[in-house]
Specification:
The chain is an alpha+beta fold. It has a single domain, classed as 2-Layer Sandwich (Alpha-Beta Plaits), CATH 3.30.70.100. The chain is built from 6 helices and 8 strands. The chain has an 8-stranded antiparallel barrel with strand order 1-3-2-8-5-7-6-4. The protein is globular and about 50 Å long.
């Protein structure tokens, strides 16, 4: 299974509320017309996050398909053209970033219905090759993070190695997603030994200065 992750910025002059409403209530109805989509999820940054800082993105769209051939076939359809045409109504298309990934479920818990989803956009540490980064992230760090009791579900999406065979190189080496019952529950987890061990391990494989994070609300459009 292939997961296409699209990081988006809202159109200039559009408020966050207008953007999120259009994306979820209008654009989603157009996306669901695409053929052979197995799953489709939107992750909207929490409104209160905009009051704290400038966010690197206004959202993450995730679409699951069987393989890259499905994506190529999809791109030739009228339904795909309709999606791209509608994006101009709410997205800054010149700043859109597409990352093709392979998903690995590290902690297979239920997604809290009214919970929050923390998205980590990771950059591997300098001098570390992509395959070593991915092996360490999944095989070592994943096991540490999965022990944090407040994490309900934990998924790693590894950027496909084929993406590094062309220019430009991917901006992100992977996307981490962790689900919590609430922001308060996420913060409470920081007092645990498991959290401290997880944080202490981060420098072994990713660059904390270059990596970015978003707190979001997930909306499942196609399940």
């Amino acid at each position: 299974m292939l997961k296409a992750c699209t990081l988006i910025h809202r159109k200039s002059g559009m408020s966050v509320e207008e953007f999120q409403t259009y994306w979820r209530n209008i654009h989603a109805d157009i996306v669901v017309q695409l053929p052979n989509v197995r799953r489709y999820v939107q992750s909207h940054p929490l409104i209160q996050e905009y009051k704290k800082r400038n966010l690197i993105y206004d959202g993450l769209a995730e679409i699951w398909v069987d393989n890259t051939d499905v994506l190529r076939t999809m791109a030739a359809t009228d339904a795909y053209k309709d999606v791209v045409d509608d994006e101009a109504n709410f997205i800054d298309q010149k700043r859109t970033e597409l990352i093709l990934t392979e998903e690995h479920v590290i902690k297979d818990g239920l997604t809290p219905e009214d919970g929050v989803k923390r998205i980590g956009l990771l950059v591997r540490k300098p001098g570390m090759d992509v395959e070593s980064f991915q092996r360490y992230w999944r095989g070592v760090h994943g096991k540490l993070a999965s022990k944090i009791p407040s994490i309900r579900r934990y998924v790693q999406s590894h950027t496909k190695l084929s993406g590094y065979r062309r220019e430009p190189q991917p901006n992100w080496d992977g996307i981490a997603a962790t689900w919590f019952d609430s922001v308060d529950e996420m913060r409470a987890g920081r007092a645990t030994e498991a959290y401290k061990n997880t944080r202490a391990d981060e420098g072994n494989f990713f660059d904390a200065g270059e990596s970015k994070f978003l707190m979001t609300k997930e909306h499942t459009i196609i399940s």
